[in-house]
Amino acid sequence: MNTINTTAKLFLLLGSVNAILAVILGAFGAHALKARLTEELLTIYQTGSDYHFYHALGMILIGIIAVQFPVNVWLKSSGWLMLAGMAIFCGSLYLLSILNFRWLGMITPIGGLCFILAWASLCVAVIKQ
To answer: How is the chain classified by DSSP, letter by letter?
Structure first.
């Protein structure tokens, strides 16, 4: 029986958990929040949900790559940056829309930068193989 390395297992697990959360939070937004939020705030919430799901799949991709290739610092950095992006970007949009705390919009770009750096790190990780 083949065993996978701990980095692959970690990012596959974190990606899967975040995919579950993205579906749950997306359904929550579509059903429970639809009547409570303005259309603008619902759109903000939906953006967070969409990016959450895309990047959960991205993290699963990192886990799959970690199974196939030797793990390096760039691949690990990509996974951690993707997780940080989900927490900061998506989390701030979820909270901004539910609590209507506009100041949270100031930290959202930090999460977006984490996403950009995560994908760039993944590119470097693949090039270095």
So the answer is: -----HHHHHHHHHHHHHHHHHHHHHHHHHHTSTTTS-HHHHHHHHHHHHHHHHHHHHHHHHHHHHHHS---HHHHHHHHHHHHHIIIIIHHHHHHHHH--GGGGGTHHHHHHHHHHHHHHHHHHHHT-
